[in-house]
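Priority: low. Protein: Lipoprotein. Input follows.
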Amino acid sequence: MIKKFLLIMSLVMIIFITGCSGNNTKEIKTDAVEISNFLKGYDGRYYHEHEFTNGSYTHVVFRIENGNIYIGEDKNPITNLSLSKNSLLMDINGNSQLSNTYNQIYSILEVNLFDDHIKFSGKNIFDKEDFNIPDEDYVVINKIKGLEAYTGNYYIPTFDTNGQIKTKNYTILIDKEGNIYGYKGMTNVGMTFTLQDNVLKSEHYDNNNEKVIMSYELEKDRIIYKIDFIYGKEYSYELMKSDLFTPYLGTYSSGDIVLKVEENIATISTMKEGNYHSEIINNDNLTISEILFSNDAAIEKIDHKITFSNDKTTATYTKPDGSTVELTKQ
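Result:
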């Protein structure tokens, strides 16, 4: 479980982006039936190919099935959804229905759906309180006409085990004159700001002289933050599509070897208990990969390969050593 947590953490930290525009003229749909009908055209399991020194392994990020969307191996679908064209927004801020760690990192997830892949992204919400300069490390870095209406301190809270705010991580401050306050370090990188409608954009260059563009969508009591451009390109992350497990549901066995296929996961008894594993199926061919770690870094992948018969009543299991066993559905 710890390894899985670290994998998810490393994955989502890499893909901290979003493609959603601040344009308020976009039509936003929230009708659950309409969104469900839209999702029915994109059934599949969507995964990331994670590279390490000795190869690569997969990590399933989303599953779309029967008009619902799930994160990872969750059994419960996301329910708080909105839709704009082919862009699906998920408000997961404080959503306790999620069994994984995404809601500890992002407040909003965005999924842009295409025929054979997904572009996945995330946004954060900055909460607001009355304007006050917290300490001398915050200085005026710009002044923009029109920001006066958004006066306040904007921060990301961290919580204790009781759900109470433990610390407030201030990100940006705006006073009643429209002055923008930030860390002193913001002036060192030459950060500049522009305002278009209710979207504040910042630009600066990183240590490699690459442009970084960030957006702050200003609302009455919060800011929705995203990264638009980094490392010399639009910062996006692509997930590839694989088949669903549904046609193969059930238990297949031979002696003490047991393959179990559920809607959200597939396991085989020859795996070592506690190892992180991932599963991808395409065209009746299922690969269950065990990933071995050392000091939280992947060092080896062990593949268990299964090929199902056309009628899904039997399966040929190829062990990691190359030997084969015929499994029969129970």
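Residues 2-14 form the longest helix (13 residues). The longest strand covers residues 117-129.
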